[in-house]
UniProtKB/TrEMBL annotation:
It is an enzyme of class 3 (hydrolase). Coiled coil: none annotated. Keywords: Hydrolase, Thiamine pyrophosphate. This is 3D-(3,5/4)-trihydroxycyclohexane-1,2-dione acylhydrolase (Decyclizing). PROSITE patterns: TPP_ENZYMES. GO terms for cellular component: acetolactate synthase complex. Gene3D superfamilies: 3.40.50.970, TPP-binding domain. Its EC number is 3.7.1.22. The gene is iolD. It comes from the Bacteria. Belongs to the TPP enzyme family. One of its GO terms (biological process) is inositol catabolic process. The lineage of its organism: Bacteria, Pseudomonadati, Pseudomonadota, Alphaproteobacteria, Hyphomicrobiales.
Length: 615
């Protein structure tokens, strides 16, 4: 057996270079690069190793470990999980800064390889700088925090351990059902230790997506259930896009006369003007999609994990006889809520389900209802997004301005606050992957870093990041990274002077405004933040606009700039779209001295009665 003597870190770098993927007939590196912030726990080992392969595996330097991991995750999502990135940090805060990002990837089923440095395996210098010591467990380090938010976790204490660890990592990162974050904690002394690795370990490997075909019995049972349906309805989740199944979905819906509602992850599976597309579903859903979902007797859930925003906290589906067909690669998701499981890839699953249904179509009256509801919703949406001369525009009006100045190939990126609801309801996606929302973990601070990852995945598309002042203040450093790397973003920053979304939720549950909007916080002096000046200080172009008309002009100018551009506009924190949508289960205090809370509790108890528990 031929061997090559390398350090463990060098073996990691060389192994990553050897992993390839095939997309549309082109062989590409599976790992598009490594994000790195170096420290004493990885600079000597991984730093030297990455320098040696820098031509084949680019290393990107970020400004925040959580931010760089968000960029890596967004890159994987925008690449339909066909390509991915790795992230390396030192031990201590560098490592734990990535834990939140690992949770984002875990919830959203997205691949990212996390390579945090770890303590000395030999323990001779213990405790080292930044080491977390377990008083009752000598094997614990800060990296144990990754265990609950990793699909696979390993600690590499000897150089030869990296061989099975990387092989297991790849099986998880490329598996459509297991896919998620992998953490390999690299003990810093082991990174520098050498071993005679078999050359076969570094042989080129081409990874192609595994397309799981449905079981014959499950397929027959699902088809029979649908054939007997009078009011069937499709929910399209992120699995549709990961599978590349959007055309198959469009054909399936058209052939069988079915309407489609989209989750946050599934939005842009169908073009907004596709007759079968009713837009968003659930708590932030359109009136059209929710109207059909309420009556549906069979819900065909394709590639969705059916979280509470999709199901209206399991109160949306009001038909007492409704059944769910769970078409999903992951059995865990396919069997939720007593669903008829159809464990399969979305693309081949829909193809085989369509063949099994043959010429069956939903009743014409049901299809007509879908068409009528869509027309009503489009008219309602226009009223909320139209331009206005109001002193402080709403989020929906800002969304409308961005939409009017956008191109069909643009990608809009967002993550948290009130904007996801407004975008889910109102944004008209024209092309697949044109809507990029991180709403599985709804992580504030994802927006700009995520936008950078999206731009790196497809530099040909204009990437528009929409972010509130709260999220911007939490994490903005990767704006400087975007300038440094020459990946231009258009950032629309909506300043409502606080956490407007949670303030509205606070008021809706009977509480007084408290500690969300800046004016309601404990303060001596209210901050007056010049966001445009701050963005300029990070190297971006920036401007502050005072109206929707000025915003539209600024957006047009931004499309012609040569670097990331931030446009700031003040917005009203109290206004949101009250059309469409659905109840969301947010527990209201059972006892209070305030009458508003007691009234909200009574309304809450009434709403609870609509939940479907145990099915």
């Amino acid at each position: 057996m031929s061997t090559i003597r390398l350090t463990m870190a060098q073996a990691v770098a060389r192994f990553l270079v050897a992993q390839k993927t095939e997309i549309d007939g082109e062989i590409l590196p599976l790992f598009a690069g490594v994000w790195a912030i170096f420290g004493h726990g990885n600079v000597a080992g991984m730093g030297e190793a990455l320098h040696g392969v820098r031509e084949q595996l680019p290393t990107y330097r970020a400004h925040n470990e959580q931010g760089m991991a968000h960029a890596a995750i967004a890159f994987a999502k925008a690449s339909r999980r066909r390509r991915m990135m790795a992230c390396t940090t030192s031990i201590g805060p560098g490592a734990t800064n990535m834990v939140t990002a690992a949770a984002v990837a875990h919830v959203n089923r997205l691949p990212v390889l996390l390579l945090p440095g770890d303590v000395f395996a030999n323990r001779r210098p213990d405790p080292v700088l930044q080491q977390i010591e377990g008083f009752s467990d000598g094997t614990v380090s800060a990296n144990d925090c990754f265990k609950p938010v990793s699909r696979y976790f390993d600690r590499i204490a000897r150089p030869e351990q990296i061989i099975p660890a990387l092989q297991r990592a790849m099986s998880v990162l490329t598996d459509p059902a297991e896919c998620g974050p992998v953490t390999l904690a690299l003990c810093q002394d082991a990174q520098a230790e050498a071993y005679d690795y078999p050359e076969s370990f570094f042989a080129e490997k081409i990874w192609t997506p595994r397309r799981i075909r449905p079981d014959a019995d499950e397929l027959a049972q699902a088809a029979e259930l649908i054939r007997n349906a009078k009011k069937p309805f499709i929910i399209a989740g992120g699995g549709v896009l990961y599978s590349g199944a959007e055309k198959v979905l469009a054909d399936f819906a058209a052939k069988h006369g079915l309407a489609v509602g989209e989750t946050q992850a599934g939005k842009s599976s169908l073009a907004h003007d596709n007759p079968t597309c009713l837009g968003s579903i659930g708590v932030t859903g359109t009136g059209a999609a929710n109207a059909l979902a309420e009556e549906a007797d069979v819900v065909i859930a394709v590639g969705t994990r059916l979280q509470d925003f999709t199901t209206g906290s399991w109160a949306l589906f009001k038909n007492p006889n409704r059944r769910i067909v769970g078409l999903n690669v992951q059995t865990f998701d396919a069997t939720k809520h007593n669903a008829q499981a159809l464990v399969a890839d979305a693309k081949v699953g829909l193809e085989e389900l369509s063949a099994a249904l043959q010429s069956w179509k939903a009743p014409e009256a049901w299809t007509t209802k879908a068409r009528d509801e869509k027309a009503c919703w489009f008219a309602a949406s226009a009223r909320y997004t139209d331009a206005t001369n109001a002193e402080l525009p709403s989020d929906a009006q800002v969304v409308g301005a961005v939409q009017r100045t956008s191109s069909p190939t643009d990608v809009v990126v967002c993550a948290a606050g009130g904007l996801p609801g407004e975008l889910h309801k109102h944004w008209k996606a024209s092309t697949a992957l044109g809507y990029h929302m991180e709403y599985g973990y709804s992580c504030m601070g994802y927006e700009i870093a995520g936008g950078l990852g999206v731009k790196m995945a497809d530099p040909s598309r204009e990437v528009i990041v929409m972010v509130g002042d709260g999220s911007y203040l939490m994490m903005n450093s990767e704006l400087a990274t975007s300038v440094m790397l020459g990946h231009k973003l258009i950032v629309v920053l909506l300043d409502n002077r606080g956490y407007g979304c949670i303030n509205r939720l606070q008021r809706a549950t009977g509480s007084e405004s408290f500690n969300n909007l800046l004016q309601h916080t404990n303060h001596v002096t209210l901050p007056n933040i010049d966001f445009a000046a701050h963005a300029a200080s990070l190297g971006a172009q920036s401007m502050k606009v005072k109206s929707i008309a000025e915003l539209e002009d600024a957006l047009k100018k931004a499309r012609g700039t040569d670097r990331s551009t931030v446009i700031v506009i003040d917005t009203d924190p109290l206004i949101s779209t009250d059309a469409g949508g659905h109840w969301w289960d947010v527990a209201v205090p059972e006892v209070s001295t305030r009458e508003q809370v007691n009234t909200a509790r009574k309304n809450y108890e009434t709403a609870l009665a609509a939940q479907r528990v145990g099915d």
